[in-house]
Write a sequence for this structure.
């Protein structure tokens, strides 16, 4: 299982980024769970040399830039103001996903990975919500977690064993003066290590504050 490497450094990139859509929401959609507003989706390299050099096409640079840009938009958009039916008010959150796109042929997949892929598709692994002082601290924790360090990281590696590949999904939103993080991981089929490309994607999701689940 290859660890995801992230930092809070903001670097430029020659990759094409999707133009952010103008987030909108209606009173009726917020309570039911408004649709996600896609922001950006890029391919990035998990190659060791690319990431050590913090190359613009590395997952380290791309992920940091997309996450930072998306988080800024949670405070800039006014979708939540339109959600009049939320008892505790509404909030716009970042949905942040990272995972491989090319996998080994079915005949080469270990049974444990096939089993875990089915198990976690609808019931992903989760960990307790965490609070941080800044988005940079969120990035630090995600990097530590995905490298298998700390209690949660060790637990991730124990659950997603063998050569099975994790697909990360995070929900990130402002909480007071800090940042709140929700984490879930699908442990899936083994990726094809000959391809070093991962997909990094961000979107915005406006929900009632008492709605805790991630967008489907």
């Amino acid at each position: 299982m290859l660890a995801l490497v992230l930092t809070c450094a903001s670097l430029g990139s020659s990759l094409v980024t999707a133009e952010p859509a103008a987030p909108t929401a209606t009173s009726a959609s917020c309570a039911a769970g408004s649709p996600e507003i896609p922001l950006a989706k890029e391919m990035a390299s998990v190659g060791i040399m690319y990431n050590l050099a913090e190359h613009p096409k590395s997952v380290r640079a791309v992920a940091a830039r997309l996450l930072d840009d998306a988080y800024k938009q949670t405070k800039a958009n006014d979708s939540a103001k339109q959600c009049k039916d939320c008892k505790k008010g509404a909030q716009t959150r970042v949905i942040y996903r990272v995972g491989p796109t090319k996998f080994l042929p079915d005949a080469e997949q270990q049974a444990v990975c096939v089993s875990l892929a089915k198990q976690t598709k609808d019931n992903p692994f989760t960990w307790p919500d965490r609070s941080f002082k800044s988005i940079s601290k969120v990035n630090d924790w995600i990097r530590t977690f995905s490298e298998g360090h700390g209690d949660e990281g060790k637990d991730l590696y124990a659950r997603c064993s063998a050569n099975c590949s994790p697909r990360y999904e995070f929900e990130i939103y402002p909480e007071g003066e800090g940042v709140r993080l929700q984490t879930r991981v699908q442990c899936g089929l083994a990726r094809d290590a000959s391809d070093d490309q991962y997909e990094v994607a961000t979107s915005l999701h406006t929900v009632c504050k008492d709605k805790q689940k991630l967008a489907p």
